[in-house]
């Protein structure tokens, strides 16, 4: 390994996304050293956030590791960044430590699909799968779940693996002579053995390139599309990948396995895992157009009853749309759900996902369509960062007995953790100041410790 002190900035930044954790750590330490020495400029902090970024522990379209995401946020001047991975917590500790090292606000989460029997006849956020919806937990501080709930976390990983193997068996039969082996070809693309549909897709696309003598003709046959259309799609890699995934892996595709009630955890089971980890259950909203999301208020009330404490949105899907009428309709739905969340005291967690080619590294917060909701998005980032810091360093997060005693209502808690997030600067200094406080500190005293002009209202 080339000594990090002699490496260029591009070399160090590339090392941040290596599967070797020691290489990532050494590169980040060196980048932080150069930054602190004034040898490496970074952008000044801007009022933009991305709190929903998948890492390479599930799938990041640009290859970012937890450390890579933290450095991206620092280099580009994001106010906050949050990692979210499918089915695993593998990157949580690396990510939070990286954020602390470089001085950026960070939060960590998990995402999976859950079964909602009360909406069994409705599509919600998972197209073609009634009763199934994407659901999240945010504000984790450890990659390890407490022993009583660790089987739930392990079951998420195991179920995903079984689903992937079943899909590959179906796809191999359909795509022969282009075939892949899950253990040999797919798992090496992941640092922690947690492969996704997108990893599988990547492997099949590469295998086809290496095997099929006429790529357009091969895919035209396997996708049942005109060869001229496939030839055009091949010139647009992102669109082509989405087409293959839609045709082969999603509802109606040869590799699709229709889920049943046992395919995913219930909301209650998933919430048990999240809250035992001191994190926050977070509902996920898509765009308001499904039959389930046409009843968003009923859906959110149901999730609140089950313990949800926040709501995730993907803003770009709701305004950055070429068709004017579709854009008008989805922007209206976006405003409605933000207003609803505020009335229900659900802080917002927003981001771009980064798990599909073409998705932005951060939302365009200057877009006119986002102006009415921009502050709510920024407030949500302070909220989850405030919880994360207090949970990680004092054990006084949103789910703690301390919070329930001193801040019994969701509104009180939301206000407090948002204020704490505003007052706690990112970096090691806040960690040291927090660890110097007694666990018996009152909410008001804690805020005063960081800002003598603060007053609880």
Kindly list the characteristics that best describe this protein.
TIM Barrel; 18 helices; 7 strands; 457 residues; alpha/beta
If you average the pLDDT, what whole number results? 94
Write down the domain tally: 3
* Sequence of strands across the biggest β-sheet: 1-2-3-4-5-6-7
The level of helicity is 40-55%
Q: What would you say the CATH architecture of the largest domain is?
A: Alpha-Beta Barrel
Order of helical and strand elements: HHEHEHEEHHHHHHHEHEHEHHHHH
In percent, how much strand structure appears in the residues? 5-15%
Describe the structure.
The chain has 457 residues and is an alpha/beta fold. The protein folds into three domains: 1-41, no CATH class; 42-143 and 277-392, Metal-dependent hydrolases (TIM Barrel, Alpha-Beta Barrel); 154-248, no CATH class. 47% of the residues lie in helices and 10% in strands. It has helices spanning 9-15, 21-36, 66-76, 92-102, 150-175, 182-186, 197-211, 215-223, 227-234, 237-248, 267-276, 296-305, 324-343, 374-394, 401-406, 410-423, 428-435, 443-450, and strands spanning 46-53, 78-86, 105-115, 132-138, 280-284, 310-313, 348-350. The protein is globular, with a radius of gyration of 22 Å. It starts with 8 loop residues before the first helix and ends in a 7-residue tail after the last helix. Residues 452-457 have low confidence and may be disordered.
């Amino acid at each position: 390994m080339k000594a990090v002190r002699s490496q260029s900035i591009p070399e160090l930044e590339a090392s941040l996304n290596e599967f070797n954790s020691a290489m990532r750590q050494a590169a980040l330490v060196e980048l932080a050293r150069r930054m602190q020495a004034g040898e490496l400029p970074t952008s000044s902090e801007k009022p933009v956030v991305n709190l929903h970024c998948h890492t390479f522990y599930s799938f990041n379209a640009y290859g970012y590791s937890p450390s890579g995401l933290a450095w991206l946020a620092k280099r580009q001047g994001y106010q906050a960044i949050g990692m979210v991975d499918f089915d695993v917590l593998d990157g949580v500790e690396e990510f939070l430590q990286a954020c602390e090292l470089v001085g950026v606000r960070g939060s960590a989460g998990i995402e999976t699909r859950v079964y909602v029997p009360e909406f069994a006849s409705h599509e919600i956020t998972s197209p073609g799968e009634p009763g199934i919806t994407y659901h999240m937990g945010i504000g984790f501080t450890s990659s390890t779940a407490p022993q009583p709930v660790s089987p739930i976390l392990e079951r998420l990983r195991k179920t995903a693996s079984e689903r992937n193997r079943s899909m590959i068996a179906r796809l191999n039969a359909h795509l022969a002579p282009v075939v892949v082996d899950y253990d040999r070809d797919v798992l090496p693309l992941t640092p922690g053995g947690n492969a996704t549909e997108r990893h599988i897709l990547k492997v099949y696309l590469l295998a086809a390139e290496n095997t099929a003598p006429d790529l357009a003709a091969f895919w035209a046959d396997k996708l049942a599309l005109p060869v001229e259309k496939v030839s055009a799609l091949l010139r647009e890699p992102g669109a082509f990948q989405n087409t293959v995934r839609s045709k082969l892996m999603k509802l109606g595709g040869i590799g699709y396995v229709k889920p049943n009630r046992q395919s995913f955890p219930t909301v209650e089971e998933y919430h048990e895992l999240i809250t035992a980890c001191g994190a926050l259950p977070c509902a996920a909203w898509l765009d308001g157009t499904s039959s389930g999301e046409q009843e968003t208020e009923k859906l959110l009330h149901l999730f609140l009853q089950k313990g949800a404490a926040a709501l995730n949105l993907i803003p770009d899907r709701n305004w950055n749309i070429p068709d004017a009428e579709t854009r008008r309709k989805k922007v209206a739905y976006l405003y409605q759900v933000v207003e609803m969340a505020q009335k229900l005291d659900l802080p917002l967690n927003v981001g771009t996902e980064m798990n599909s080619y073409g998705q932005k590294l951060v939302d365009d917060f200057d877009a006119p369509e986002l102006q009415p909701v921009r502050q709510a998005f920024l407030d949500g980032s302070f909220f989850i960062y405030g919880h994360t810091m207090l949970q990680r360093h004092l054990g006084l997060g949103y789910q703690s007995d301390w919070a329930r005693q001193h801040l019994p209502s969701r509104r009180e808690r939301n206000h407090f953790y948002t204020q704490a997030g505003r007052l706690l600067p990112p970096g090691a200094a806040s960690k040291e100041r927090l660890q110097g406080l007694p666990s018996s500190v009152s909410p008001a005293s804690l805020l005063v410790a960081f800002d003598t002009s603060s007053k609880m209202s």
